[in-house]
């Protein structure tokens, strides 16, 4: 069993499609073993996305991710990282495959509805950024 981190972004929560996204995650076979809703401060968002701090889109990324509440989750399953990335689709909704979360619910590359970890090291960092051990179902 592998774990990955998932974030349902403000545009999806404010657009009232978080429930549909959660249903798709459940139907995919991935298990939601932790979940909560919160709103990130600018400082927290900059820390979470520190890997992108030199990118041209960094400021816009921080604006978008702090524009409203997010739902953060820990997902578990076989090859959970790759499986969730497949379910999300490409970062740009216009380029994402049919029926993927970003194709269905993303608005643009900047507002692409969901985030998921890209490798085991990132998953471990992102999970511990938001959750302590007591909050994750064993
Ligand atoms: P996410 O998976 O949350 O990781 C970083 C985010 O930066 C990404 O999804 C996009 O929403 C956002 N972003 C904005 N512009 C770009 C870009 N040109 N390339 C990649 N990601 C971008």
Summarize the structure.
41% of the residues lie in helices and 19% in strands. By secondary structure, it is an alpha+beta fold.
Keywords:
four-stranded antiparallel β-sheet; alpha+beta; Alpha-Beta Plaits; 19% strand; 138 residues; binds adenosine-3',5'-cyclic-monophosphate
What's the SSE blueprint?
Elements lengths: L1 E7 L1 H5 L3 H11 L2 E8 L3 H7 L9 H8 L4 E8 L2 H9 L12 H5 L8 E3 L3 H11 L8
Antiparallel strand pairs: 1-3, 1-4, 2-3
The structure holds adenosine-3',5'-cyclic-monophosphate.
Task: Provide structural commentary.
- The chain has a single domain (2-135), classed as Alpha-Beta Plaits (2-Layer Sandwich), CATH 3.30.70.
- With 138 residues, the chain is α+β, with helices and mostly antiparallel strands.
- It is built from seven helices and four strands.
- The protein has helices at 10-14, 18-28, 42-48, 58-65, 80-88, 101-105, 120-130, and strands at 2-8, 31-38, 70-77, 114-116.
- Bound molecules: adenosine-3',5'-cyclic-monophosphate.
- Residues 52, 57, 61, 91, 109-110, 112, 115 line the site of adenosine-3',5'-cyclic-monophosphate.
């Amino acid at each position: 069993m592998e774990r990955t981190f998932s974030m349902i972004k403000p545009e999806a929560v404010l657009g009232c499609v978080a429930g549909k996204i959660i249903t798709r995650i459940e139907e995919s076979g991935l298990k939601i073993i932790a979940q909560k809703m919160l709103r990130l401060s600018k400082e927290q968002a900059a820390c979470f996305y520190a890997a992108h701090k030199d990118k041209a889109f960094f400021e816009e990324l921080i604006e978008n991710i702090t524009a409203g509440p997010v739902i953060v989750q820990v997902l578990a399953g076989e090859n959970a990282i790759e499986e969730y990335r497949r379910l999300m689709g490409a970062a740009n909704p216009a380029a994402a495959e049919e029926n993927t979360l970003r194709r269905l619910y993303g608005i643009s590359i900047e507002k692409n509805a969901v985030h998921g970890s890209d490798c085991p090291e990132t998953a471990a960092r992102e999970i511990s950024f938001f959750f302590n051990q007591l909050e994750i179902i064993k």
